[in-house]
Specification:
Distance between the termini of chain B: 102 Å
Structural class of chain A: mainly alpha
Number of strands of chain B: 0
Radius of gyration of chain B: 30 Å
Strand content of chain B: under 5%
Strand content of chain A: under 5%
Shape of chain A: rod-shaped
Largest interface: A-B, 46 and 42 residues
Number of helices of chain A: 9
Number of domains of chain B: 2
Number of helices of chain B: 6
Shape of chain B: elongated
Oligomer: heterodimer
Number of strands of chain A: 0
Chain lengths: 156, 123
Amino acid sequence: MILFVKYFHFFILMVVSVLISACSMPKIVVLNDPLTAEEHLQLGLSYEKKGLLDEAIRHYEEASKNDARGFLFIGNLYLNQGKHEQAEENYRRAIKKNNKLADAYNNLAWLYYIKGERLDEAEDLIRKAMELEKGNQDKLKIYEDTLDKINKIKTK
Amino acid sequence: MFRKVLAVYLAVAVFVIGFVQSAGAAFIPSELTMNSKIEDMQKVQKFLEMKIVSQRLKDFGYSEKEIIDRLNSLDEQTLHSLALKIDELKVAGDAGLAIVLALVIIALVVLIINLTGHRVVVK
């Protein structure tokens, strides 16, 4: 009995240990992301085409951690919804993350064109896009079209 | 007659294609930036959703064989639903157990402090 009282703490400790080991312990699971930024963009695009916009944004956001096109695609999605402020914010983020992403310059310029505001800046943006993609004739054609439209609205 | 019909068809087609391109030309849609084709998207989506579900099962400790078996038993729609709700997917467990465990850990800490000759008092 004296021995039991003396080692009471150890006895309690042992009982608790046995009880813990008898329980099914909750597991700590480290979750890994199996997709690359490119794959997140592809999946997001696929969801966007199906109208799953929240899921699309989730994948674009995931991609944007490593790839500025994530912000660009979020901007495009918002622009298609007529949410101009969010679109502008995301185009700017895209350019900040990758200042060589010509499509982000073009689409921001396009946004200003459809809003009919900051047209001088829109012209600068589209000229920057043209400079970045001067070897890509297909893209240049589209950028020239944007510039043309901006100039027309400016001269009105 | 056939040539005339063909000529008219081609003329209309060229006009429509040209019109469509110029109408939406100044905004670059995401698929053009990605350079991806709409018709390939479904295949790519299925592949990527399999990758997501497979990784999550792996994270939860399933073996390669178990993962393959489970993926094979899923139809496309179920796989899609699973991939969409992947963050809600958890290994079975309950919150009550977590609370009990937390209390036991606290009791253990108190016990260890007591064993080292100190006292814990709740004021």
